[in-house]
Specification:
seven-stranded mixed sheet, single chain, mainly beta
């Protein structure tokens, strides 16, 4: 089992940047593919970005590609989401998720992930 704790959320003006972190504890971190999802008020949780266990394959939602970057540091058991050029529509609770040793990985699907953090709030003002 793995425990996930997100941090780095906050209030930022449109055009600004934030970096979210997700610290993992438990099993060998590199055995997990990691994803970031977000949920805005009244909306379903949606995929944002994902990265495989060794960090050489990434996926992004169309809405964030070119603005957000997912990365990981397996030595620190941490995955990051660098968010640049933020827009008011990026306002949401952001969640990290872990998929343990995926034999078949569907990075954009919530059901692929075994563990979830509690979330961190991001608010982008216009």
């Amino acid at each position: 089992q793995v425990q996930l704790v997100e941090s780095g959320g906050g209030l930022v003006q449109a055009g600004g940047s934030l970096r979210l972190s997700c610290a993992a504890s438990g099993r060998t971190f590199s055995n997990y593919a990691m994803g970031w999802f977000r949920q805005a008020p009244g909306k379903e949780r949606e995929f944002v970005a994902a990265i495989n266990g060794i960090g050489d394959i990434t996926y992004y939602a169309v809405s964030v590609k070119g603005r957000f970057t997912i990365s990981r540091d397996n030595a620190k058991n941490t995955v990051y989401l660098q968010m640049n050029s933020l827009k008011p529509e990026d306002t949401a609770d952001y969640y990290c998720a872990a998929d343990y040793l995926p034999s078949a990985w569907f990075p954009r699907e919530r059901s692929s992930y075994d563990y979830w953090g509690q979330g961190t709030q991001v608010t982008v003002s216009s």
